[in-house]
Design a protein that fits this description.
InterPro entries: Hopanoid_biosynth_HpnN, MMPL_dom, Mycobact_MmpL, SSD. The protein is mainly α. Among the domains are: 193 residues, no CATH class; 380 residues, no CATH class. The chain has 32 helices and nine strands. The protein has a four-stranded antiparallel beta sheet. It is elongated and about 115 Å long.
Length: 853
Amino acid sequence: MAGTLLMLAAAIFDVKRFSINTDIEGLISQDLPWHQRQIALSRAFPPKGIIAVVTAPSAENAEQAANLLAQTLSRQPDLFPLMEQPDSGDFFERNGLLFKPLADVRKTAEGLARMQPVLAALALDPSLRGIAKTLSFATAGVKGGAIKLDRLTWPLSLADRTLSDVLSGRPATFSWQELLEGQPLPDKQRRHFLEVQPALDFSALQPGHRAEEGIRRVAADLHLQDKFGAAVALTGPVPMNDDRFAVIRSSAVRDTFTAAFGVLIVLWLAVRSWKLIAAVFFSLIVGLSATVALGLVMVSAFNLISVAFFVLFVGLGVDFGIQFIVRYRAERHEHPNLYEALRWAACKVGDPLSLAAAATAAGFLAFLPTDYRGLSELGLVAGSGMLIAFVCSITLVPAVLALLQPPGEFAPVGFRGLTPLDDFLQRHRIAVVAVTLIVVLAGAPLLSRLTFDFNPVNLQRSDSPAVVTFRELQHDPEASGNDAELLAQSLGEADQKAKRLAGLPEISQTLTLNSLFPAEQEQKIAALSETSHRLGPALNPPRMQPAPNDQENAAALDAAAEDLAGAAGNSDVAAAASARHVSDLLRQLARSDAATRARAEDAFVPALVYDLNMLRKSLAPQFITIDTLPKNLVRDWLSPDGTALVKALPKGDPNDTNVLREFATAVLRAEPPATGGAISLYESARTVTAAFVQAGSLALVAITILLFIALRRITDVLMTLIPLLLAGVATLEVAVLDDLSLNFANIIALPLLLGVGVAFKIYYVMAWRAGKTGLLQSTLTRAVVFSGMTTGTAFGSMWASSYPGMSSMGKLMTIALLCTMAFAVLFQPVLMGRPRQVKEYSERDADLRQAAE
């Protein structure tokens, strides 16, 4: 009754208070110097959490879609406090040509001057009719010998593609910028992005979900896909983390039910009674509810690491319960009376369980002083949970058994079939120990190849839209997240730091605010000004032609088809063949229905109008200074107090962990105060690794002291620790052979190895001290094996997770568990040999031996 009331009270408290803090930045102590530098950087230059990437079939459509999306999002400051267009908008429309090399600017100016007649015709009549007449005008030049037909090859190829799409009913667009460029545009020019700082809710599992859905809803409401063929993809830290949490949530129910079903099957194989299973499960549920309640009291909200205590508690909580149940079954076989069997079971299992619980708790609590806050809180909650699991196992399990009155046991409990193997291992004890040591030590050089993959992107699904987009943007200096950043007291100091870093072979590019000022502006502006003077009358006719009706469009298209066919004649050159094919397409369009011609108009005309307006703006740029740059762009590089930002980009693949490691170490050697995405990842990995080394050392010392106090023999302590250490080394060796790197997710397997491993080793050394022989065939091995199987079932469900981080965690946990069980079940009994004589024990030890089988 008391257990039920405790469970209900704890469950009610858990439901009311349960929460998970999804703030990843809070997982590591903010007192660390590198984290302080990162916080200072974030304060000086607030990061944007979301990058909205707008892509379209043409540069014009991408620009228009990005501009429209930006304008609409800027009207929702509550959801999007800050929104910027780092590569588009009015400033770049007017001054974009200044950012090109001088030679390219002059080439563009000369090309525009040569196209003056064409531009004049299009500006006078920017319609489907005007486009058709311009084509007729060009063919007249071919017939008159002013130009060769080959000059029309590129325009005809673009027209061919667009007209074919229109006539076949496919989405169609025509890029006048591509026509002017004379070659296909790079993908970058068909892509623009918005940097958005969203309002986040860290009490939700997906803090940025509301903002992300807001962007998607705005894009849908604006019909960007229908109007411009534009797609909007979201990436950046917020969408990528939210995607990770969504995957974990979606697979959590499936994985939990799979694990629970598997654990039930294993428990059935272990105890063969639903009443016994009910006792273990009741103890587990009460203990878990109490641990959750205590954890919420101690840490207020679980973090993304400490929430893993659920798995640890289930694994070790079931272990304590199974140890008691299997011991009870053995005693019930010897003592038909239920209460007598329970008393004997408690007597025999009490000391090993209490020592295992204390050692396991000490191991977890050793994580408290580390700088890895996520792990520190996990140690606090899991360590407390181990003590709760122990209390529940020795109180609630026998209480439930007394209530349910399970039937007696008519067959001995254990693995009697393993007697030959038990005898074989003992007869060849020295050889087994020697071979095991040789194999493990021979594999020690493998540990030098053990790596820590500190790139969190590798822990996410490679087909996640946010991850795919993130990898595509990594080579773009305006969007790369794996960079290094420095704070400088002034722009001059920033330029000096950038110059020093630029000389490092690991760095491809450095940027400061002064990098945004184009070179040779005077010459570029002069060239564009001259072109503007020459094209002014052509681009700005005093009076434009009235818009045509459909009949006029059809007539102009038919006339252009005839003119183009006449220009091609019977020539067999490629340009003539292309001209004849386009002529056929124009004729089909002229004779199609009005709706088809309307689709053609949508494909050609809006882009033409947009580009003509863009051209008028771009021919009148302004000299770029810090005063004429957009204020938000300046704010990205210069804070109000004069602090300047320096950015460095890695040379090589920025998604490669080795490239990032070399890049980060090179930057830190040259500029120790550096921070930024790559530096934070690198320093996080160092902090996490150091935390595990520190905690592992403390745990080992604490467990050793505890074992020595309980066992009082250094040889017995070594008999417990040597298999534990060998299992740890073997786990890491197998991980290297399997090409499995440690990462922020699977490194959690190491404290589990410590917890489960020390418990199993203590069970065996206590039984050995009590004088028990034939350990492999004993009830103890049955309990250890089935306990390991239940834990392995839970880990196996994690291994099958669709989330790569969870999968790698489950995989390494499974490897660690198998190694731990192998060294506990097969190696430790052989290492210990036959028990010492009874006379060597104290009175307490003699009592234990008398109570043993």
